[in-house]
Amino acid sequence: MVLKDDVLIVEDSAVTGDLLKHYLEQLDYNQVHICTTGKSAVKTFKDLVHKKKQPIVLLDYTLPDMDAHSVFSQILEIKPNVRVILETATEKEDEGIKDLIRLGAFGYLEKPIRFDSVKQIIETLEREQEFFQKESTQIELFKQATQEAQVQIQDHIDFIIKTSKQISTNSICQLIGTSDEFVVSHLKKLENENKIVNIGEKKEIACNQCGSVKITQLFYCPACKSSNFKLGKLIEHYNCGNITEENSYANDVCPNCHKEIKALGVDYRVMTNHYICNNCSEFFPEISTEYLCLKCENKFKLNECGWKSSMYYKSINM
Ligand SMILES: [Zn+2]
Ligand SMILES: [Zn+2]
Ligand SMILES: [Zn+2]
């Protein structure tokens, strides 16, 4: 029997975590790890990678301590070609989910999670991996692939198009890991069927070292460079000048001067949409960013990036 990869479930609900583990065991995944926070997930992921494992990650979109983007950025930094499947209870039209798919998440599972959807997404992931790992030119491989495998890859392309507002031919090729020829011919077919529309050639950010457009954005705390942060609300107590997270004001009492905060706008104010670093506790209205090439692992800033152009498409009737 072929040994299956480890799976790392990042899920704060114990019930959902156990259910997923149970489903995965039925699919012969016997090395399943469960983490309930973003922080422990990053640590476990790092440990597994150090043990030369290639865990598949099932990442809950909403976690108590960290934003899914932050967890995703941190594990990408550890292993750029990681396979991440999102779990989400929110609408699939959600911009955050789309962003993560665009940054390379393989797909998503809708909550409540069902066994057949777990089975389907894992099998697709395995098949694509097996298919594209083989040597030889990919178009040749594609011709030899079974009908079923071909359909699954085409479905994955359709899925990527559906979850993107617009997407370039270059990005699709790199997300799927296949040749232009195959993608272009499938796009032509979709265009002829009036499912997508060509919106012209555009430039996108590319690696300044290898030219890949499979790029992800990394976010850092400007003070300590940690990627462990969350988006939250802060309260400033005018009297004593204390600025800390909203939840540090238990029972409306300032954690610094121990006096009660009374009237919004008079003795305190709420600062929404601030990034709060879990590492150094500093907070910022903006977070620093850098790009990471998922192909060659080169890191670069926006002003140093290369640009690549290709045809963009938008889905209309999919
Ligand atoms: Zn590169
Ligand atoms: Zn105070
Ligand atoms: Zn920090």
Shape: globular
Secondary structure: helix percent: 25-40%
- Cα end-to-end separation: 39 Å
> What compounds are bound to the protein?
zinc ion
Q: What fraction strand?
A: 25-35%
> Total helix count?
9
Compressed to H and E, one letter per element, the order equals EHEHEHEHEHHHEHHEEEEEEEEE
Structural class: alpha/beta
Q: What is the number of beta strands?
A: 15
Q: Indicate the multimeric state.
A: single chain
Could you give a short account of the major beta sheet? 5 strands, parallel
Average residue pLDDT: 87
Query: What is the topology, as strand order, of the major beta sheet?
Result: 2-1-3-4-5
Radius of gyration: 22 Å
Low-confidence stretches: none
Description:
- It contains nine helices and 15 strands.
- 34% of the residues lie in helices and 26% in strands.
- The chain is globular and about 75 Å long.
- The site of one zinc ion has 8 residues, from loops.
Structural topology:
Elements: E1 7-10, H1 14-26, E2 32-35, H2 38-50, E3 56-60, H3 68-78, E4 83-88, H4 95-102, E5 107-110, H5 115-133, H6 138-144, H7 147-162, E6 167-168, H8 169-176, H9 180-192, E7 196-206, E8 215-220, E9 229-237, E10 243-245, E11 268-277, E12 283-284, E13 288-293, E14 299-300, E15 306-315
Parallel strand pairs: 1-2, 1-3, 3-4, 4-5
Antiparallel strand pairs: 6-15, 7-15, 8-13, 9-10, 9-11, 11-12, 13-14
Helix pairs in contact: 2-3, 5-7, 8-9
The chain binds zinc ion (3 copies).
One zinc ion (ZN) binds at residues 221, 223-224, 226, 277, 279-280, 282.
